[in-house]
From TrEMBL:
Belongs to the YqgF HJR family. Signal peptide: none annotated. Could be a nuclease involved in processing of the 5'-end of pre-16S rRNA. GO terms for biological process: rRNA 5'-end processing. Residues 191-210 are annotated as: Disordered. Keywords: Cytoplasm, Hydrolase, Nuclease, Ribosome biogenesis. PANTHER family: POLYNUCLEOTIDYL TRANSFERASE, RIBONUCLEASE H-LIKE SUPERFAMILY PROTEIN (PTHR33317). This is Putative pre-16S rRNA nuclease. It comes from Neomicrococcus aestuarii.
Length: 210
């Protein structure tokens, strides 16, 4: 089996070239911004800001249900690093969030039946289609988001309510443009859970005496 450039077996980029939305996620300690693309992967648009709840992960569950409901083909989670490219506490937080989301999306044992936000629509049961999650360098996404909001004439006092969504849009738009320019899926692949549906079972060990 050949391996793709991002370490994900090519056979498991299940819908890499399918016409389907992508998602962008900006993870913060208090809030999580979310954006979605059109099915052709051309333009990122804001969806909403979720209140982060690290104790129950209810926000991650709500997001996982929405990703399933929209039938996204992959998710890009922003990976914050210092300007010098070093890992920070925020980097670790983003990886932890991505791991939780990955397990909710791709583990048969995940439970997406928790109480949901009525605005997000009805919860969708986990399917047999895996949804790959990728980490995208976002060290300047928030700075760019503030700049974009200012250029659109939005008062800086109103930025707080929508800055996370704007950052998610920047993360996703960056990924979409990299997809188009490089003709591949960018970012660092978050490994599937070992029990993810659609992954091949390990071959049975052969008896050496035969």
């Amino acid at each position: 089996m050949t391996e793709s450039s991002m370490g994900l077996p090519e056979v498991h980029i299940l819908r890499a070239n399918v016409r389907a939305p992508r998602a962008g996620v900006d993870v913060g300690q208090a809030r999580v911004g979310v954006a979605f693309s059109d099915p052709d992967g051309l333009l990122a648009s804001p969806w909403k800001t979720l209140k982060r709840n690290a104790s129950s992960n209810q926000d991650v569950r709500l997001l996982a249900r929405e990703l399933k409901a929209r039938n996204v083909c992959r998710v890009y989670v922003g990976l914050p690093r210092s300007l010098k490219g070093n890992d920070t506490a925020s980097t670790e937080m983003a990886w932890e969030y991505a791991d939780i989301l990955n397990n909710l999306l791709n583990s048969p044992s995940s439970d997406l039946a928790a109480p949901h936000d009525p605005q997000a629509g009805s919860p969708t049961p986990a399917s047999d289609v895996v949804i790959p999650v990728f980490m995208i360098d976002e060290r300047l996404s928030t700075v760019s988001a503030h700049k974009t909001l200012r250029e659109n004439g939005i008062d800086s006092r109103k930025h707080r309510a929508i800055i996370d969504q704007a950052a998610a849009v920047n993360i996703l738009q960056q990924a979409l443009e990299m997809e188009s320019a490089q003709q591949r899926i960018p970012g660092d692949f978050v490994p599937f859970p070992e029990s993810a549906p659609g992954l091949p079972e390990a071959p049975e060990a052969k008896d050496p005496s035969l």
